[in-house]
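Weekly modeling sync, notes
Attendees: AB, CL, MP (scribe)

Item 1: holo prediction request
CL wants a bound-state model with glutamine before deciding which constructs to order. AB pointed out that an apo prediction alone won't tell us much about the pocket. Agreed to run with the ligand included and paste results into these notes for async review.

Input as submitted:
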Amino acid sequence: MSINHYTNLEFATIRELQAQLAAKKISREELLKACLDRFAKYDEQLGTALEIFDESSILARGQNNPNSLLNNIPGLIKDNICQKDRNLTCASKILQGFKATYDATVTTNLKQAGALVVGRANMDEFAMGSSNEYSAYKKVANPWDMTRVSGGSSGGSIAAVAAGLVPWSLGSETGGSVRLPAAFCGIVGIKPTYGLVSRYGLVAYASSLDQVGVATRTVYDNALVLSQIAGHDAKDSTSAKRNKLDYTQNLTEPTLRSGLKIGIITNALNAEGVQPEISQALDQAIKHYEKLGAEIKPITLNTMDYSAAAYFIISRAEAASNLARFDGVRYGNRAQGIQNLNQLYAKTRGQGFGPDVRLRILVGNYVLSAGHAGDFYHNARKVQSLIRQELLACFKDVDVLLAPMHAAPAFKFGALDNSLEMDLLDYFTCFVNLAGVPAIALPCGFTKEQLPIGFQLIGPDFSEDLLYQTAHAYEQTNNWWNKQPAGF
Ligand code: GLN
């Protein structure tokens, strides 16, 4: 483990790179070249990108916006977010060869901010998974230990930032897919309030939960990128009508909002299976917040125990209906040797979707079927609304909530071959998505084996500015963020 003294471009933050560009220590082309060289050198082993674009096409698409702090800064976008005329596969065989015909709103926003999008990030197929072992193309390794998973489903986006290949990336969350890998890889990841960021051009998994998220090495950088992509979009009917905000505005000093009350979700902290190293790191983080002046209140979130089950049903139900569009007629691949329409559907979908996606579609259709929707889907919706009510009630007593991100650090490839265990990784994350509220994950230590440990802060609707301020105060009075995995 080494400390970054900003002598090099790798592992530099957006802010630092911007200063180097402004001082003319590097040019836009040199910065991009350095980034592409790092992908060429390291990504064969890491597997973070499904495609890195050629230099000239990246530069040709980058718009110049001298007023933006993202101007000329390279980054990576998850491969379920449309980039016009680029391939879009969602890491699935069914979309092999498909090209996006338009830019997602977030892609447009980033281009207008002058950012340079260097490629398409690897992911679990259709964003379904927690380890990035379910990509149809390749796995993503954890930069802290290449024999371990990065976490998923936005593993490519997160590992690329954690290995210092790019300073920012976009991922997506349905049930924890930005925060979980961020915690496994020791970086910062946010899941914004549902509706804050446009979903136009984000391939749907479970539309009522999906949100684009941001991954960076620092809280400041994260706020900077979110400021560019947040805001109302008439092309997304679930987009919230909110004024655009500069989320970096409260990040000048590493101080907490005065009188800040933090609720600790004690049943999550004491949940079965949480390893002592994880709870010790969390205890330290809580003590640190106390030192910074926060008032700490233990709370119990009773509905949390039902969240993974409700999430399981709702996400599969919506996935089954959203993925019905991949039928061999309109998008991507079509199976060969077809005799009739039923064969066209069955063969195309059977060959195109991986086993986990097929399983989810089956479960989704089952829980929505006439005889069962009442028992499963409608009950899950009721549980969802109870979770939201309980969380909102908590926010009458405390400003933000603090909880673990995971019970154990990143596991070895293949270690969770049981899909129930994989699904239970959602326990610490999916209640946030079901409630629609924002949460940010950030690093708070390392295990003895030098594997990152993360925690999360959760706030009420549209409290991103408070979450960033609270996270920033912690980050800037610790140096976890500044640690780098060896070998990059
Ligand atoms: N692990 C969860 C799932 O597979 C979360 C995925 C996500 O947030 N996209 O559904």
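Recorded for review: The CA atoms of residues 457 and 482 lie 20 Å apart.
Action items: CL to compare against the apo run; MP to circulate these notes.
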